[in-house]
Structure formats: structure tokens, C-alpha cells
Specification:
Layout: E1 3-11, E2 17-25, H1 63-75, E3 83-89, E4 94-100, H2 101-115, H3 137-157, H4 169-188, H5 195-215, H6 219-222
Antiparallel strand pairs: 1-2, 1-3, 3-4
Helix pairs in contact: 1-2, 2-5, 3-5, 4-5
Length: about 230
Amino acid sequence: MNEITFSYHFNFPDNSKKRFLVKLDSDTLTYKGSNNSPPDWALLGVARCQCCKLDLGEYSYCPISKNISDLVFAFKETPSHKSCQVSCISAARTCSKETTVQEGLASIMGIIMATSGCPSMSILKPMACFHLPFATVEESMYRSASAYLLRQYFSHKSGESCDFFMDRIDEHYEEVQMVNEGILKRINMTSEMDADKNAIVTLNALAQILLMEVDEDLESLKRLFT
């Protein structure tokens, strides 16, 4: 197989449905977006993130904005608190949860943002292969910290500089927060309701919580190993 797929199904109490398919290249874990023309708010020069490393002469569009534009359009009139059943279907399993639109969107946006080719979000990309829908705060912290330290192991094996004490994780996740804030500004230009906006706010809150936990030596996870 040359694709990893996650099919998200939103089923609402009024029997309406929304479907969204996430496709990743199995070798590069790069998101395979649609061929639709991106909106103007996805142009790279619009509300550009403070930490953006992409060359305006080489890239016309922000890769994240381009790839989430269909999702934003589909949910732009949906309130965040609206109840629904969200299912994520992959080759390995099906996960379903009675939840809100906001939580379902945060789950989809998390994987798209990590795999769209934004250099600042590349720190999150390895987790895409083992995507965990509807992850709790503690699960997200465990996965993020574990993935970061595993990256350091492979860097060490390759003779590169490594950061086993997580001294440099702050700078990576500060950029993640800058990207979240930049994407939120873009969505504010087009979306009438708050579901997609609050999905980004949720993702940003997780990044902030992780940094606070790292500053406290991941004390909340220590009990798992004692």
C-alpha cells in the first residue's frame, strides 16, 4: 500500500452527515490534499506566521491553509458545541465517540497540520503514522514526549546532535503555537461559526500544556514508571 488513510464520519442527531478522508503517503507521511483551488486566505503572504520558513518566491500558498481549506469550508457554519457521533476508520481499527464537532475537528486538523509540509510542524509528523483519534490530554503528552525522545535516539545513532534532556523542545513547540495562532487568524477571515476555530484553540492548548509539563520534568507522567 502506498497510502495511509483515515476516514472521518460525522453523524448528527438530525441524520445529516459529513465525511472527510485523510490520505497520507505511506513512505513520506505527507498529506495528499485535494486538487481544488485554494481560497485567497490560504496565500502564503496572508497572515503569515511569525516563524514561517517558506520562501514566498517558491511557495504560493501556506501548505496547512491549503490543505485544511476544504474542511474549514465544510464546517464554517457549524457551532463547536454541536453534538454528533464521530468515527475514525483506518486499516487498523475503527474508533467512535459521542462528542462535539470541535473535538472531531481537532482530531482531523491535528493530523493534517502535522503532515502538510510546514517546517515548524515537522516535529509532530512521526506521530501521524500512529494517529490516535480523540486523544486525552495525558495521552497527548505521553505520545508527544515519547516521540520527541525517540527522535533523539535515532539522531544519536546517526551521529547527530541529540537532546535527551529535552532542553530544546521549548523552541520547537513555541513554533507550533505560532503556527496554530497564524492558522486561527486565517480561519477567522472566512468562518462564521466557531467549530474549526475552537479546534485550533484546543490543539494550541495541548502544546502549551506539554511545555508546562516539560518545565516540571513531566511529573504527571512519572507515576507510570514508579
